[in-house]
Design goal:
Elements: H1 3-13, E1 19-23, E2 28-32, H2 37-48, H3 55-68, H4 82-96, E3 101-106, E4 113-118, H5 120-128, E5 134-141, E6 144-151, H6 155-171, H7 176-186, E7 192-197, E8 200-201, H8 210-219, H9 222-225, H10 232-239, H11 244-248, E9 252-253, E10 260-261
Antiparallel strand pairs: 1-2, 3-4, 5-6, 6-7, 7-8, 9-10
Helix pairs in contact: 3-6, 4-5, 6-7
The chain binds zinc ion.
Length: 273
């Protein structure tokens, strides 16, 4: 057989080695096929520079979901939340790379340098235990009636937001505080799943492209978006734990002083070998 036929044969045989990964937003197991050496190489390469935000890597992780998924479940990479992404990548690592995941860490408290074995099963179990929050806001401001469904944003919208804020901070020479502020200002827009104004639905609000969504959001009254007790931002701060996903990954403890290391493990670290 020629190379083309060999690749064809290998692709077909992948259907035989199916494994299931729990995806929180659909609350069920989804079946995937194994990754190829090429995909493994790319994931490992990007993992080494995981500390800096890389748009190509983020989009590659999303594309991987669509490439590997073999279930008929209608979920696509566009629907995934941050939590889904953690479970998906942890599941891919667990089912494709048999070696344990070990990370070299340095304790911020006692300077102890140590190697920590990550238990990705525990991470998945923690994700399973979290509920998928959804809230309805109904309010009337200046004689206009608003009705909004608020839930966790898609991973795709969060990476687009991160890229947008990166560009904005460079262009306007933001300092760190200004960058954080603009993120806080814009992020609530991506928690809006659908929007009704005077009982009429804004068509496909959730799937609007990034800039149209920001444009629409900027037109809403501040008492609805960021100011006061009934605003979306206040709902996010009180009912949603904005650090939930990253806190799920705070499982590394210094063996010497028992200090918990925060922000060391991210879904990008899963493919370090
Ligand atoms: Zn320590």
């Amino acid at each position: 057989m020629n190379v083309k036929e060999a690749i064809q044969l290998l692709n077909e045989s992948k259907g035989m080695h199916v494994y299931d990964v729990f995806i929180p937003s659909v609350q069920k197991e989804i079946s995937f096929k194994p990754i190829t050496t090429g995909q493994q190489k790319t994931l490992s390469k990007f993992s080494m520079n995981a500390n800096t935000f890389n748009l190509d890597y983020e989009f590659m992780k999303l594309a991987l979901f669509d490439e590997l998924k073999i279930s008929n479940e209608p979920i696509t990479s566009n629907d995934l939340t941050e939590l889904d992404m953690v479970c998906f990548l942890a599941g891919i690592r667990l089912n494709n790379i048999m070696e344990p995941l070990e990370i070299i860490c340095k304790c911020g408290e006692c300077d102890n340098k140590f190697e920590f074995k990550i238990d990705l099963d525990t991470v998945i179990q923690k994700c399973k235990g979290l509920d998928q929050k959804e809230f309805l806001i109904k309010t009337t401001i200046d004689d206009i009636r608003y009705e909004l469904t608020i839930k966790y944003p898609t991973y795709k919208s969060l990476i687009e937001l991160e890229e947008y804020i990166n560009l904005l901070s460079k262009e306007l020479s933001y300092n760190e505080d200004q960058t954080i502020e603009s993120r806080l200002f814009l992020k609530p827009a991506f928690f809006i799943y659908d929007l009704k104004i005077n009982e009429v639905e804004v068509e496909n609000f959730n799937t609007l492209d990034f800039l149209s969504k920001i444009e629409m959001y900027n037109e809403l009254p501040p008492t609805l978006t960021i100011l006061g007790e009934n605003s979306i931002l206040n709902l996010l701060l009180t009912k949603f734990n904005l650090q939930e996903t990253s806190s799920i990954l705070n499982i590394i403890k210094c063996p010497k002083c028992k200090h918990e290391l925060e922000g060391v493990l991210s879904n990008d670290s899963f493919f370090i070998i």
